Amino acid sequence: MADDSLGGAEDDFREMMRKFLAGEGEIDPAKLAGAAGLPTDPAMVARLMGQLQSAMTSGVDGIDEKLAREESGRIAATGAVAPSDAELEALRQALHVAALWLDEATSITQLTAEPALLTRAAWARQTLPVWSQLAEPVARSIADALTEALDAQVPEEMKAMLGDAGGLMRSLGGTLFSLQLGHVVGQLAAEVVSGGDIGIPLLPGRDEHDVQAALLPQNVAAFGQGLDIPADQVQLYLSVRELAHARLFRHARWLRAHLISAITDYAHGIRVDVGRIESVAADFDPANPESLREALTSGALIPPKSEAQLAALARLETTLALIEGWVDVVTADATTRLPKADAVAETVRRRRAAGGPAESAFATLVGLELRPRRLREAASFWRAVTEAVGGSSRDELWAHPDLLPTADDIDDPSRVIASLRDGPVDDDAFDQALSDLLAGEGDRPIEGRPGDDPQDAPDAEDESGSEGPVHN
Questions:
Q1: What is the distance between the terminal CA atoms of the chain, rounded to a whole angstrom?
Q2: Dihedral Cα 57, 186, 212, 66, nearest 10 deg
Q3: Are residues 219 and 133 both part of a single domain?
Q4: Residue 394 sits in which domain range?
Q5: From 84, 252, 273, 442, which residue has the greatest number of CB atoms within 10 Å?
């Protein structure tokens, strides 16, 4: 709460807000820019005021994706350094070699689209639709809470004078949230090294089932600085990792929708506490507009997770860990020729476990962390499965969501290994045996079902060692 020494500054601010909502006055642009967490230089303030004026007439509810995309691209382009032709050619060669090495480590086939080399700004603009999809439930929840708080706080005699203040507040809140989201995504563009670096496929392919692999040359170069590892080895390792991630999502075509759906289902459960909104408004100090931004980005407006959300989050973290663990194991097998592969791998794991400043900002902004907490355990699980049944049988577990291992399987892979050793179900033999049984032409057990005793069907052909088809 602002103290009395401000000499009525709090009342002045409330009066300024009342006049602004009634169309009778203006808000100090510098204060509003500070509240949005943006620099207060004249150019930025002018741009912010133009965006807010547009918001008041557009009636945008939720995230303004165009505004967030422009802001993210602008932030990402700040400090950008164009790579040299030699650096670009080295990365293209690394991606080519990486594809050949991956063929030896996994039965999942190559991508149909050429990997892309993106600038930070291009990555930010192209990935913004996914970020908006993830953040939209929170933006709407905050807008609902703001409207409800305004309705509860404004006296009845003032509501007619203010007109559609609720709609105006929703538009202003959505604009400020969109700017903040764009700012965070723009900062993320300086941290990621590839399209799959966050763990989910962010770049659109040619169709809904396609996945675009990509590297950010400037960030790949920054990743290798100070590691005392040759640049070509860093490039090769990161290329293999990115292609492995993209291949997995193209192969398991259900996986992207499964993952995004789980994230959005979790996010839809977020409800901003109106009491927290009112508390922030009551404690607002006009001498410190930065406090509004801190409330937005600290997660203070998002209440603790419910039991249902905690359960959903646990399932989501298991899936993310399984994805990252599989990528780790396949990448390790594909990069055995690299003397420094283990050192690069450990750097990647530590980096993923800790996350960067922008990733942390997104986590507090949306209330969701996208870092797998059980990455090492998941990698150990996939290693045990690979050593027990081989890479081809291991990769069959991605054929359908019902086959996806659970958190308990990560702790004890024996059940999964036993089921893979039993072999895939022979659907043709099962259908034929069922037809014979219904027609009264046989009473022998159905072949190929896990758990059948071969001694009960001595004449049956043993297909327990056959390998199921690889789905592309």
A1: 60
A2: 10
A3: yes
A4: 375-422
A5: 252
232 and 105 within one domain: yes
Tens digits of residue pLDDT in 243-290: 999 999 999 989 988 888 888 777 777 766 666 666 665 565 555 555
As a whole number of angstroms, the distance between CA 271 and CA 309 comes to: 11
User: For residue 357, is pLDDT > 90?
Assistant: no
Single-letter residue type at 447: E
Q: CA torsion sign, 251 to 253 to 256 to 262?
A: negative
- Within this chain, do residues 415 and 428 fall inside the same structural domain, yes or no? no
- Helices vs. strands in the chain: H and E counts, helices first: 21, 2
Residues paired with 117 in a beta bridge:
215
User: Are 356 and 404 members of one domain?
Assistant: no
Q: Is residue 10 part of a domain?
A: no
Residue 14 lies in a domain: no
Residue 257 is which amino acid? A
Q: Would you say how long the chain is, in residues?
A: 472
Residue 324's pLDDT is 93
Domain annotation covers residue 12: no
Contacts of 446 (CB under 8 A, 6+ apart): 429, 430, 433, 434, 437, 452
Q: 């659907």: which residue's tokens?
A: 427
Residue tagged 């996010």 (tokens): 267
pLDDT at 197 over 70: yes
Examine the domain organization and report whether 186 and 247 are in the same domain: yes
Helix (H, G, I), strand (E, B) or coil at 265: helix
Q: Which of 28, 78, 70 is nearest to 51 (CA)?
A: 70
Q: Which of 348, 366, 384 is the last residue of a domain?
A: 366
Statement to judge: residues 282 and 147 lie in one domain: yes
Alpha carbon distance 232, 210 (integer Å): 28
Give the range with max mean pLDDT: 25-34, 299-308, 315-324.
315-324
Which pTM value belongs to this model?
0.73
Q: What is the DSSP string of 119-183?
A: -HHHHHHHHHHHHHHHHHHHHHHHHHHHHHHHHHHS-HHHHHHH-SHHHHHHHHHHHHHHHHHHH
Report how many domains make up the chain: 3
298 and 441 part of one domain: no
Q: Which of 458, 466, 459, 431 is nearest to 446 (CA)?
A: 431
Residue 374, Cα to own-chain centre: how many angstroms?
Answer: 16
